[in-house]
Design a protein that fits this description.
By secondary structure, the chain is an all-alpha fold. The chain has one domain. Helix content is 78%, strand content 0%. The longest helix is centred in the first third of the chain and has 44 residues. The protein is globular. The relative contact order is 0.17.
Length: 388
């Protein structure tokens, strides 16, 4: 049996992974995984497939599932991996430890923010860190595209179309993932099996309605963030417009400046970007507000993994599902590439940030400098160069 074969690992060479091994890995990833959902998904691919803890096929199915379902991508993928290896307990513990480090960091920042009535230092940090984040995201997007699309020309066509639509519309359109998935079914499902494959759809989709119907509405804060987690499709960054509409315009919990600070906090901290919810919750209702908002935004993700994930696992060998995964994965990769372009346009705003971004990309690509080290260096540079 050979180890360290990267994407070539298959089910015959899987290595047993203990629950606490998996928990320790995701605790570390949650504490040091910078770069947002795209980068975090890339880290999981880079780290777990070569260790033979998951197969390439399981990773691709998890990535496609995470893109098809609403809520933060990275947290959903992490819980998926915990679920396929150790069931409900694995999904639960992995989800908690993956979010916990970022939650604790955001809690500390929130306390200081309220105590000192402002967070100018975060803007300076964001100025230096953001170009590095774009470089990390771009590098991860390339890795993901190579892993998910491979050499199939028809999938590259889907990839290119979705990437272009994402750039032009400046949004991730979840319907494109579904349409691309059905195109995959048309391309890869034997014609004689249509009737049999159609029977899968009601079984897979039935739990979805039950999940949103049982979402807790303990208060306005919890209800809002449950909806944010349950109905916002795309990566973690896709939740920002939804939050702005509800937090600033509808409920008027935060000012425009406070909301921008909240987004900055979510980006500069490790782990899922959606942890922004905890910052918003703290400003609205202190510690319990932060805890409620964070739990509420991740609750739908957890339920989708438990109640929809089992159907993905049960029917993973069916041609219709495999075709859907191929198409949806190609679309997801295209959307990620398009989102990288959009983020770059809004984040690299002058010559210093452009230089930081290019140099960071070279350091990652050619010399494989660790991401946390780049983030730390960029934070110092941002403080030195930021003009306020």
């Amino acid at each position: 049996m050979q180890e360290g074969r990267g994407d070539d690992v298959d089910t015959r060479s899987l290595q047993p992974v203990g629950l606490w091994q998996l928990v320790r890995y995701f605790l570390r990833l949650g504490a040091f995984g910078f770069g947002g959902p795209i980068a975090l998904a890339g880290y999981m691919q880079r780290d777990l497939i070569p260790r033979a803890w998951i197969t390439k096929q399981e990773y691709l199915e998890g990535l496609a599932f995470s893109q098809m379902m609403p809520g933060p991508l990275a947290a959903q993928l992490a819980m998926w991996i915990g679920y396929i290896r150790h069931g409900t307990v694995g999904a639960s513990l992995v989800g908690i430890v993956f979010v916990l480090p970022a939650f604790m960091i955001v809690l500390a920042i929130s306390y200081l923010y309220v105590a000192f009535q402002g967070l100018t230092i975060v803007q300076a940090l964001f100025y230096g860190i953001c170009p590095v984040v774009i470089a990390i995201v771009a590098h991860s997007a390339v890795r993901l595209a190579k892993a998910t699309v491979g050499t199939e020309r028809r999938m590259w066509l889907i990839f290119g179309i979705v990437a272009l639509i994402t750039i032009v519309s400046r949004a991730e359109i979840a319907l494109l993932f579904v349409v691309s998935g059905f195109i995959g079914i048309l391309l890869y499902t034997p014609p004689g099996s249509w009737k049999k494959q159609a029977q899968l759809i009601p079984g897979i989709m039935a739990p979805v309605a039950g999940i949103t119907a049982t979402a807790p509405l303990l208060c306005k804060l919890a209800g809002f963030f449950v909806k944010a987690g349950a109905f916002t499709f795309g990566s973690g960054l896709a939740i920002v417009p939804f939050l702005h509409q509800g937090v600033v315009l509808n409920h008027q919990w935060l000012t425009e400046r406070q909301f921008l600070d909240a987004v900055a906090v979510g980006i500069i901290t490790p782990g899922p970007v959606v942890i922004t919810a905890a910052f918003v919750g703290y400003l609205v209702a202190g510690f319990w507000g932060a805890l409620t908002a964070a739990a509420a935004v991740f609750l739908p993700v957890y339920l989708f993994v438990l109640f929809v994930g089992r159907y993905i696992i049960r029917y993973r060998e069916h041609p219709a599902l495999k075709g859907f995964v191929k198409g949806a994965t190609a679309a997801a990769s295209g959307a990620i590439a398009g989102a990288t372009v959009i983020l770059g346009q809004s984040s690299i705003t002058d010559i210093p940030t452009a230089v930081i971004g290019v140099v960071s990309l070279l350091l990652i690509w050619r010399w494989k400098v660790p991401e946390p080290l780049l983030i730390a260096g960029a934070a110092v540079i941002g403080i030195l160069l930021y003009n306020g």
